[in-house]
Design a protein that fits this description.
By secondary structure, this protein is an alpha+beta fold. It folds into three domains: 295 residues, no CATH class; 175 residues, Response regulator (Rossmann fold); 188 residues, Nucleotidyltransferase, domain 5. The chain contains 19 helices and 37 strands. The strands form eight sheets. Strands 19, 26, 27, 28, 29, 30, 31, 35, 36 and 37 form a ten-stranded mixed sheet that branches. Helix 11 packs parallel to helix 12.
Length: 767
């Protein structure tokens, strides 16, 4: 049901503003940039005494001590004019400060990981029996992630530090030591130490290969880096992953049978650190500590940490975006903010256009489960009596007539048995001169772990898709659910089935300020034969939607090496725009808006390519926006007044979670969008929900970030996979689902992506 969407009273952003006198003059040395190799050599030589950065065709250098003179031509520049350089000085101060305190400090991309040395933050000790003795090189500790950022919440550049928490895994003992203890390492990946230019920083090692055998004191590797077919056991360490840590701990304690139990305890402890109220407590504690420090960024340039940004003081511009009013008829008269209620009251958007009304449905199930599958199918079609929201079945909800349903039994749970049942189904309907519209395949959750030809569902799905038949799987465990839970599951299954059949359950409202607005999701399917070896190939995936959320088409590039990926992706976008332009009869002078959603940073070359494409397509009134939809960023938003939602009798989930729909505008190019609140989390151990960060590329000609954030939120309310709100805009979600399905199907013998063409390719077959 609808919930109030008023702005919460006590928001907090995990960002510490950093103040300094912007008039203070810094001595900046300038050298010509002579290429990456020379730059790295210079940076390594001056590490620890100077900050070195590239800016265009120059290298800028600042000395950290007054007695040192930076090399190059010296310029005296006010610190406020080079605030991003001041940010690098702040990162340098953080490294120096925490390493002098004896903390283990790692650098990952632009973030610093500071590992706590407090006894209460030793999570590994809490995960094993009290009397156990483990080596000091094994660890699982609470840690902090600090990242210096320059944002413009009020239009003026503001230096700030984002403070987050995590659990850090440590496996520092050599493989030789583990082998001597009897730890099995076959099949595990190993890393090797690398030399860092900054010796203050710890290193996580470089992934080198997977152990295939041990011969004497050497490890033979498979799936390895070039020229690293083997490595000395004394020079290798195991990859620091939580499941590897659990395996080593159990083996070290001579109780390998306890691996699963230890892993579960480690994950539970990591979740305890990640829940909102505990994360907030730790963020506030570190912020308080930093505020007490005296910070010297450069000679004569001091800085001070301010207070965390809250809704009571200096919080960025924000709003809680209301749920869109979904439209259930072509005239726009029937609307509802709640998707299921709107369907039950008004029927689907295309109820009068959808065809066929009389469906042919094949059901594939195991013979020994048929007696329980058949009542389940009946409840899917007609509803679950005496349940809340579940008594409206698939037929009535989507205004369909009584279908032809036939069950085909698989005599076992093997792929061959399932395929025989599928072949029998196709032969049966062909003999009648008809075709199946939908195939429902009963599987078990255990089958999800099988790959390629070993997976009965993938074999069956591939077979039906090549025949142009939509496929929906059903877990037997879902069939066995209690009535109310089964009703919720059936509602979602029915929605996905209707979308796979090409139906349109509802659409989004849209203004008509532009004649044509396309929202284009850019994704990719990455074909990897291994983590380190083999040649990677990419399939670019483009999903195209109209501004009202109408799914127009999905196109894919051919499978290409990464170097050819951008050109192939541009070809796919060109084909998609041309197809939509033709289908909707665009006039040459129609105003057009193209909004691109990408789940990876948008490169300048890609923007320039699309700009050229707009000119090539002769769209003189086209405007475009390139939005990077990122989930990897340092920001967290807390609502200190949120007590959470009940998750069982004793637990609350989402304590301190922000409301779904909260948008925080960090600048004119960056905004946080919260798509999970306390009610959207599944359980208390899910941790604090991370918002998406929407980054608008500076070359965009359409720059209304608030409009784009509202649009992205509306597209997250528009998934036809489930009645529940989606964790991503469907532009990104659908691209990911296409990629996921293609990846699974690619491992089935004889499968070709060309099977998804024609009629089936125009549906949401991937839901």
């Amino acid at each position: 049901m609808d919930r109030a969407t008023t702005a919460p009273p006590s928001l907090l952003l995990n960002a510490l503003p950093v103040g300094f006198d912007r008039r203070i003059v810094m001595r900046v040395g300038r050298l010509p940039y002579e290429g990456p190799e020379a730059f790295v050599t210079l940076r390594d030589r001056l590490s620890g005494t100077h900050v070195v950065r590239r800016r265009g065709n120059q290298v800028e250098i600042v000395a950290l001590k007054a007695e040192l003179v930076p090399p190059g031509i010296i310029d005296n520049i006010p610190a406020g004019d080079v605030i991003d350089l001041s940010g690098q000085l702040l990162t340098e101060w953080l490294i120096d400060h925490f390493t002098q305190l004896g903390r283990r400090v790692f650098q990952r991309r632009r973030a610093l990981i500071i590992v706590s040395d407090k006894a209460q933050d030793d999570l590994l000790v809490q995960a094993v029996p009290r009397e156990s003795s483990l080596p000091s090189w094994l660890g699982f500790r609470a840690a902090y992630r600090l990242q210096v950022r320059v944002e413009r919440p009020e239009g003026r550049p503001q230096l700030m530090v984002a403070v987050d928490t995590l659990a850090h895994i440590q496996i520092d003992g050599s493989v030789a030591v583990m082998l001597a203890r009897g730890v099995r390492i076959d099949g595990l990946y190993v890393v090797r130490d690398i030399t860092r230019s900054d010796r203050r920083l710890m290193h996580g090692g470089r992934l080198t290969g997977r152990v295939s055998s041990v011969i004497g004191d050497r490890l033979t590797l498979e799936d390895h880096e070039e020229e690293w077919g083997s490595i000395l056991a004394a020079d290798a360490k195991l990859e620091p992953r939580i499941e590897v840590l659990a395996h080593v701990v159990a083996s070290w304690l001579k109780s390998p049978g306890e691996t699963s139990a230890i892993l579960e305890r480690l994950r539970s402890l990591a979740s305890a650190v990640a829940v909102g109220n505990e994360k907030l407590r730790r963020v506030q504690a570190l912020a308080s500590y930093l505020q007490r420090q005296s910070v010297q960024l450069a000679p004569g340039l001091s800085a001070q940490f301010g207070n965390l940004l809250t809704s009571k003081c200096r919080f960025p511009q924000h709003e809680v975006i209301p749920k869109p009013s979904l439209i259930f008829d072509a005239g726009g008269r029937h609307v509802d903010r709640w998707n299921q209620r709107g369907l039950d009251q008004h029927g689907p958007y295309d109820r009068f256009q959808f065809n066929p009304k009389h469906l042919n449905i094949a059901v594939i199930c195991q013979a020994d489960l048929q007696g329980r599958v058949e009542p389940f199918i009946d409840q899917l079609l007609h509803g679950v009596p005496n349940t809340k929201g579940g008594d409206v079945g698939f037929l009535r909800r989507f205004a369909l007539e009584r279908p032809y349903v036939r069950v085909f039994r698989s005599t076992g749970d093997s792929p061959a048995n399932y395929r025989r049942a599928a072949v029998e189904a196709v032969e049966h309907i062909t003999d009648q001169g008809k075709r199946w519209d939908l195939a429902i395949v009963q599987i078990t959750q255990a089958m999800e772990q099988l790959e390629g030809d070993a997976n009965p569902y993938l074999i069956t799905k591939a077979f039906f898709l090549t025949k142009g038949i939509a496929v929906q799987h059903v877990h037997f465990e879902t069939i066995e659910q209690a009535d109310q839970q089964r009703a919720y599951s059936l509602n979602n299954i029915g929605l996905a089935c209707y979308a796979k059949l090409g139906g349109i359950p509802w659409l989004l409202p849209t203004d008509q300020k532009v004649a044509h607005e396309l929202v284009i999701g850019l994704g990719s399917h990455h074909e990897r034969t291994s983590r380190l070896g083999g040649s990677d190939r990419y399939v670019g995936i483009t999903t195209v939607f109209s501004g009202d959320g109408r799914y127009l088409l999905e196109s894919r590039t051919r499978s290409v090496p990464f170097d050819d990926y951008r050109t192939a992706m541009l070809d796919a976008v060109r084909a998609a725009v041309n197809q939509v332009r033709k289908d909707f009869a665009w006039a040459d002078d129609d105003p057009v808006r193209l909004v691109f959603h990408a789940f990876k940073p948008v490169k300048n070359a890609e923007v320039e390519a699309v700009q050229g494409l707009v000119q090539e397509l002769a769209l003189p009134h086209a405007e475009y926006a390139f939005v990077h939809v990122a989930d990897d960023h340092p920001f967290q938003v807390f609502d200190q007044s949120q007590d959470g939602a009940w998750a069982g009798r004793q637990f609350r989930k989402g304590v301190c979670a922000p409301p779904r729909g909260l948008m925080v505008k960090l600048s004119n190019s960056d905004a946080l969008l919260c798509l999970k609140g306390s009610h959207e989390l599944k359980q208390a151990s899910d941790g604090h929900p991370v918002p998406l960060c929407l980054h608008l590329h500076r070359a965009s000609s359409f720059t209304d970030l608030t409009y784009l954030a509202r649009q992205a939120f509306a597209f997250s309310c528009h998934s036809w996979r489930s009645f529940l709100p989606a964790p991503l805009p469907i532009t990104i979600l659908y691209s990911e689902l296409v990629a996921y399905n293609l990846r699974l199907l690619s491992r089935v013998s004889g499968w070709s992506d060309d099977a998804i063409v024609g009629r089936i390719g125009g549906t949401r077959w991937f839901l």
